[in-house]
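To close the section, here is one more complete example, presented without commentary so you can practise reading it yourself. The ligand is adenosine monophosphate.
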Amino acid sequence: MYLYNSLSHKKELFVPNNPDQVKMYTCGPTVYHYAHIGNLRTYIMEDVLEKSLRYLGYPVKRVMNITDVGHLASDADTGEDKMVKGAKRENKTVLEIAKYYTDAFFADCDKLNIKRPDVVEPATNCIDEYIHMIQTLLEKGSAYQAGGNIYFDTSTLEKYYVFNDHDEEDLAVGVREGVEEDPNKKNKNDFVLWFTKSKFEDQALKWDSPWGVGYPGWHIECSCISMKHLGDDLDIHAGGIDNAFPHHTNEIAQSESYLGHKWCNYWFHVHHLNTDTGKMSKSKGEFLTVSLLERKGYDPMAYRLFCLQSHYRRNLVFSWENLDNAVAAYDKLVARIAALKQDGEVEQAAFQQLKARFVGALNGDLNTSVAVTALYDVLKAKCNDATKLALITDFEQVLSLNLIPAANALKQKQAEEEAANADPEIDALVAARTQAKKEKNFPEADRIRDELKLRGIEIIDTPQGTKWRKV
Ligand code: AMP
Ligand code: ZN
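Output:
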């Protein structure tokens, strides 16, 4: 498999450290509010990456954190803790907010067929690990104490901006609005590893530490949670593009200073979903969530297809019109699959040939839009329906679009409608018309059709025979 690696800025052949276990880490949600559908685009594409790796024969162990402390309003460690802000907004405790929005996040994931990672670890579970890593960084001279906080000293690094070919715009997104200079920092890019009470008196959750009562910075969470469950090396680290700087840049700085060697080989970044007016936001305008889509009558599977139709390294623009197009494409796919019959044995040669196109698309930097095209190729192919159904079932291990259950539900609905409309008298008239046509008695055939029309029945001639419906 070839994957674009943000570290080398190239597509690289993916070679895991140990082919018996691919170690994958994903930055999890900050559970202060619902995830918007932009956040969920990132989780959908990470889900596709994990499922593709498994489909291509790599056993994966995937770990994700839940950020329930330490993520401040600006990713550059300024402003209020997002969790505290969420709790104030809803008049609840931070723990209540964390529980509610963690559950809401996984409910959204279920609706979008996003598999739960093998390990999900809340940041508040790993305080001892953070303290240990920070202590080691202090001992090594990679961190310092100032104004009550512990900072990572970026001047100790050979290179800090490891992803430095990112657009200025992406870098700016990472820093976000409201950045104020912290006078305790020795260098502009230094970041907080541990905050103490000296900085935020109203922080809800605090723990004892060798440097006073306080709480961890956001970046340290991911390094420690990854190492806790995956050890000292990592194959793939994934996240949204805005996480590349400063979050992932800081994760690399502290992890590699702590370990004394390279930490993660491949960095996978999903680009943003934007609205036609710009960046997706949780604070302004219509807050786009999966529940909102459902309230407006959209099947979350149509949104998943919408995401799969474009490459993860392209910005994607959300509009209701674009989503409507995805709905039309999804409904058409389901209708075509519903028309397939189990008509015999799978034709092995055709199966392998069509599967190779799908595999090729995944191998080429997870090209899901080409993978979806490979699905259309299956529907158009000359092989029998049994082969097509077997291929669709196979592709669904990665696409997870509920295509087979949705097609079965449609067939069931069609059968129920037919049964509800059954009328032996009309059937007899339709059969008489068919017979008249066969005997080339066209005046009689037309007479019967007109009679049916008067009774509100429309005749539909299809390759499978004549059907009728009430109009
Ligand atoms: P957060 O809950 O804010 O930590 O974000 C969760 C994930 O969503 C992170 O991986 C972000 O990089 C990602 N993300 C944030 N905004 C967007 C967006 N508009 N489109 C795609 N991914 C996003
Ligand atoms: Zn992270």
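Once you have examined the tokens, check your reading against these statements. Residues 27, 222, 247 surround zinc ion (ligand 2) (CB under 6 Å). Residues 271 and 333 are 27 Å apart (CA to CA).
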